[in-house]
Write a structure and sequence with these properties.
This protein is α/β, with parallel strands linked by helices. The protein has 2 domains: 2-359, ANL, N-terminal domain (Rossmann fold); 430-530, ANL, C-terminal domain (GMP Synthetase, Chain A, domain 3), CATH 3.30.300.30. Helix content is 31%, strand content 24%. Bound molecules: adenosine monophosphate (AMP).
């Protein structure tokens, strides 16, 4: 695909994921196998994708939207998400996606910052939008996927618009640097910022879908990520469809038995998911896994948060598979550092940089650090899927580049074999008596303590030590917190990590707060601990 694309100069993601696949003879192949929460199942071919997305591109054009204007999708996983995502990209609008559980403030932060011009949503979410509408002066139209008729001059019915639109849309040749997808970063640090990508990203998204996720023409691939998160678009839409791969999308919520049933019944061959989901599965009755036939599954990949070694060893037994951890970010647009079939896994490590991606561990003063020293995880700018801006915040974008590197905000070290080991976010590192403690390291070790199912660790102010280590834990069903278990946990951390890293306090919660994409929200734990306002918690899943 790469060569064809470079030769034609047509980088349009919408075109490449639909019309281009039809031109390659895949029009009749299933592109999307959509499974609703209530067992509804619909298959859409690549010709269907082409038809629906072209219609939507025509709808946007007819409504007067022009390239560079901003379209947002505010919906759960329904088929219209995929048609309109591709259609808006064909029409060269900047296309943003939102988690469907966002509240008003979260919506306002994002839609307001981006200057959204048109939003696709459904009736049940309309109230939220209407309540903030006055503060969104650029918003010209709201389109409802579940309205049969137009509601007013500017609240329109998707069905009516699509009914009257033509199937024919000749996507203009789209140069690679044309802005494409907009994702607001999770908000776990500071105000959300909109990472803006360009159509060139498809080069790396398709390459990694082939080289890392190992997708092959006969695969049935399932990416469980929501489209509100970059994984849901880069690898739940763009990468696989640019390769003509059939994808499963499930519109329901997490449910262990259901997920296993999908894997088995639909014969999923490649599964891309997140550590939290795997850890939730780990808590299930082992007998459940003995009954399920996963013989069709070739590989499991994971992303979004550290993958604890114990999850890998559990999966080897319970799922009879390795889990390949992949590291990347909203800003990188595609997988950067990764485990992959053919590369020996060191459990707990994120793997090695992708060929062509230069990573380094850099000190605050810009020095590249030697192996086994912890520092800032940086990437050499210029990879194909690199974000091109924080939309409307060029100044913050520029701050991410220093000493010739892009600063990821993560800390890591590289071992003597070239494997990278995630240590934490640079802003979450705990400094206790001048000793740097990675919350991730403590969290990970706490999971090795029998009885502890989830953990979250923060640094809290301490008069003597500047910061102290505070641990929040959630217990396995039927386990009880008592002084014995606390002592065990303290000793374990003291031995496994360091005495300085041993939590001085433990707090037991029913669940550790996490974002929808599975990241522990230490900000929320910190606020809870300090009794302050946690800020925007609309991305909270649990
Ligand atoms: P997001 O931009 O929301 O996808 O978050 C990206 C951040 O999630 C990274 O900077 C890391 O802090 C974390 N992250 C993503 N993948 C991994 C991974 N495989 N291991 C550890 N942390 C990860």
């Amino acid at each position: 695909m790469q060569t064809a694309l470079i030769r034609s100069g047509q980088f349009n993601i919408g075109h490449l994921c639909s019309r281009f696949q039809c031109e390659l003879g895949l029009g009749g192949k299933t592109a999307l196998r959509w499974l609703g929460a209530h067992e509804e199942r619909v298959d859409y071919t690549f010709s269907d994708l082409e038809r629906h997305s072209s219609r939507f591109a025509n709808v946007l054009q007819r409504l007067g939207f022009s390239p560079g204007e901003v379209f947002f999708i505010f919906l759960p996983k329904v088929p219209e998400v995929y048609f309109t995502f591709l259609g808006a990209l064909k029409a060269r609008l900047i296309t943003g996606t939102l988690f469907s559980n966002f509240g008003e403030e979260a919506l306002l932060d994002r839609l307001g910052d981006a200057g959204a011009n048109v939003v696709l949503t459904r009736h049940s979410y309309l109230k939220k939008l209407l309540r903030i509408r006055e503060r969104l002066p650029s918003l010209r139209h709201i389109i409802l996927v579940d309205a049969n008729e137009h509601q007013s001059a500017d609240i329109l019915s998707y069905a009516q618009l699509m009914k009257n639109a033509s199937d024919d849309y000749e996507t203009p040749v789209t140069p690679p640097e044309t802005p494409s997808v907009l994702h607001y970063t999770s908000g776990s640090t500071g105000k959300p910022k909109g990472a803006l990508h360009c159509h060139r990203s498809v080069l790396l998204q398709s390459r990694t879908a082939a080289e890392v996720l190992s997708l092959q023409p006969h695969d049935l691939y399932w990416c469980t990520a929501d489209h509100g998160w970059v994984t849901g678009t880069s690898y739940g839409i763009i990468g696989p469809w640019s390769l003509g791969i059939t994808q499963m999308h499930f519109g329901g919520a997490y449910d262990a038995a259901k997920w296993l049933q999908i894997l088995e019944q639909y014969r999923i061959t490649i599964w891309y998911t997140a550590p939290t989901a795997l850890r939730m599965l780990m808590r299930e009755d082992p007998a459940l896994f003995e009954r399920v036939d996963l013989s069709r599954l070739r590989h499991i990949f994971s992303v979004g948060e550290p993958l604890n070694p114990e999850v890998i060893s559990w999966a080897r037994k319970a799922l009879r598979h390795d889990i390949y951890d992949t590291w990347w970010q909203t800003e990188t647009g595609a997988i950067m550092i990764t485990n992959r079939p053919g590369l020996a896994i060191k459990p707990g490590s994120m793997g090695k940089p992708l060929a062509g991606v230069e990573a380094a561990v850099v000190a605050d003063d810009g020095r590249v650090l030697p192996d086994n020293e912890q520092g800032n995880l940086c990437l050499k700018p210029g990879w194909d899927a690199m974000f091109i801006s924080y939309f409307h915040h060029e100044d913050i974008y520029r701050q991410k580049f220093k000493y010739g590197w892009y600063w990821t905000g993560d800390t890591a070290y590289r071992d003597q074999d070239g494997y990278y080991w995630f240590q934490g976010r640079s802003d979450d590192v705990i400094n206790t008596s001048g000793h740097l403690v990675s919350p991730f390291e403590v969290e990970s070790a706490l999971l090795e303590v029998p009885g502890i199912a989830e953990s979250g660790v923060i640094g809290a102010p301490d008069e003597l030590h500047w910061q102290k280590v505070v641990a929040f834990v959630a217990l396995h069903h039927g386990c009880e917190w008592n002084s014995d278990l606390e002592l065990k946990a303290r000793l374990h951390i003291s031995h496994q990590v360091s005495p300085m890293a041993t939590p001085q306090e433990f707090h037991v919660l029913a669940h550790i707060p996490k974002t929808k994409s599975g990241k522990i929200m230490r900000r929320v734990l910190r606020a809870r601990y300090l009794g302050t306002d946690a800020g925007d918690v609309s991305t909270l899943d649990i």
